[in-house]
Amino acid sequence: MLDVESTVETKLTCYHCGEPLPAEVFAVEDKKFCCYGCKTVFEILNENDLCEYYSFDEKPGITLRHVSDETYAYLDDAGVRKKLMEFDSPTFGRIWFYVPAIHCISCIWLLENLQRIRKGVLASEVNFSSKMVRIDFNPEQLAPSQLAQLLASLGYVPQINLEGEKKENKTSANSLIGKLALAGFAFGNIMMLSFPEYLGVDEGDDTLRLLFSYLNLILAVPVMLYSARDYFVNAWHTFTQRQINIDVPIAVGLLALFFRSAYDILTHTGPGYMDSLVGLVFFLLIGRWFQNKTYDSLAFDRDYKSYFPLAVMKWSGSGWIPVIVHDLQVGDQIRIRNLEIIPADS
Questions:
Q1: 70 — phi, psi (to 5°)?
Q2: In which element (H, E) is residue 101 found?
Q3: Which of 57, 89, 106, 300 is buried deepest, with most CB atoms within 10 A?
Q4: Residue 66: its pLDDT value, please?
């Protein structure tokens, strides 16, 4: 009889992040970790009685094996601090960090209990959809660089962006809301002024009917010129490029409906279809608003500059100091660590 030995291979994983354990294992009591960073995070949580973090989800942490020793000293620069801080006073500060690593309820719970980990943090709140963390702190006890280092030490490395793209997106969103508000105002009033046509008012009262028709035409003009402007601009651009996109039939339909309605009103041959026209623009803009909200939650706002370092260490004559990349001058001596991107031409 042939004896066959069967072996069951048990794949061990890191207690913090769930990554497979390497040959060199870091252990604390009976718990094993894949790297020193994961072990450090566990020790921080354990010392502050925050191990409930591991009860919300299985292996909720983020691996720190590939996190480099980044320095955030440049965040304390006056110019950088002014861009990042939402509110700054001697005793109270508020700052927002974008943290792409937020992915579950354990992340939210941990990041909203930072005040239990670090003295000087007053409160913290997470916006899960945008992956933003708002931290209120005491500037006398903590600096922005220390807050960023705290997040990085917990495995939630913040992504710093000083280019002002969020401000541009906010301006665009405000413009869309203004167009939507104008279209909604005109739509509601045109519907109200069109009630005589809906209810079949006495045909003998032509003066009132003509007045309402002219008011509908007046209300529809700013909607066409402002609220629906993007559709006409996009359609024109596609014509100049000899292409066609979805805005072309929309623009053609809006123009046809407007001029036909204007002709009916001015020639007294009918009430026109201004209610349908403005209603169409209103609902199209609602769809665009929902689309923009979806895109914002996905955060497709990175360009090639996002992969460049924001600051490097420069030799000042007496030692190495952090300096913003944009402030580098010809002849400056900088220090580049292994695997770091060179931030300037040499």
A1: -75, 150
A2: none
A3: 106
A4: 45
